[in-house]
Amino acid sequence: MNSDSDLQIAGDILAVQHLLQPAREHPATVAEFAGLARSIAADRAQWEHLVAYDATTRWYHRLRTGPGYEVWLLSWVPGQSSGMHDHGLSSGVLTVLDGELTERAGRAGRTLGAGAQRVFAPGYVHEVTNDSLEPAVSLHVYFPGLTEMPMRPAQSDQSAQCSPAAQDAVPA
User: Fold this and answer.
1) Which residues make Cβ contacts (< 8 Å) with residue 152, sequence separation at least 6?
2) What value, to the nearest 5°, has the Cα angle with vertex 119 and ends 26 and 73?
3) Predicted TM-score (pTM) of this structure
4) What's the chain's Rg over C-alpha atoms?
5) CB–CB of 87/141 below 8 Å?
6) Is residue 92 exposed (0-12), middle (13-18) or buried (19+ Cβ within 10 Å)?
7) Strand partners, 138
8) CA 72 to chain CA mean position, Å
9) What string of pLDDT tens digits covers the 172 residues of the chain?
């Protein structure tokens, strides 16, 4: 009679290479994109020397691209805002690297400190603002890569459907 206790694997299962999944060179799942953002955030040498601040407009720099995704680095001086927008057909991961940002979606608002992450799906409408008195830096991973960022009229309730008011290619 066979039972689960009768099953034994002889030898080293790790020696059977065809049974192992190859390591992926690029992320392919939401969890892997969030992990990519965390690994970049932890390696300040990759991005810290690139950051610039501009009081007249939001500063941004495309840090990396891969098959089906891109990574953007943004800086925010106090008072700067993305405006209410979505990311078209792209999903994303927003990670605060330094400082503090406020994300507003509809009536809800939340403060995101260094290390905080937000994952969002296509069509998610939000606004990101530096409401603090210190500059902030954020990392944005978009998959697929960002092709549009429709701006939305500022409303206290974003549950109503609204047409894009303008196009803005600046990631947020």
Assistant:
1) 83, 84, 85, 86, 125, 158, 162, 164, 165
2) 65
3) 0.77
4) 21
5) no
6) buried
7) 74, 96
8) 9
9) 555 556 565 666 566 666 566 667 889 899 999 999 999 999 999 999 999 999 999 899 999 999 999 999 999 999 999 999 999 999 999 999 999 999 999 888 999 999 999 999 999 999 999 999 999 999 999 999 998 888 988 764 433 333 232 333 446 6
**Could you write out the three-class secondary structure of the chain?**
CCCHHHCCCCCCHHHCHHHCCCCCCCCCCHHHHHHHHHHHHHCHHHCHHHCCCCCCCCEEEEEEEECCEEEEEEEECCCCECCCECCCCCEEEEEEEECEEEEEECCEEEEEECCCEEEECCCCCEEEECCCCCCEEEEEEEECCCCCCEECCCCCCCCCCCCCCEECCCCC
- Taking the C-alpha atoms of residue 171 and residue 92, their distance in angstroms, rounded to an integer, is 10
Distance between CA atoms of 62 and 74, rounded to whole angstroms?
9
Of 90, 38, 43, 80, which is closest to residue 58 (Cα–Cα)?
A: 80
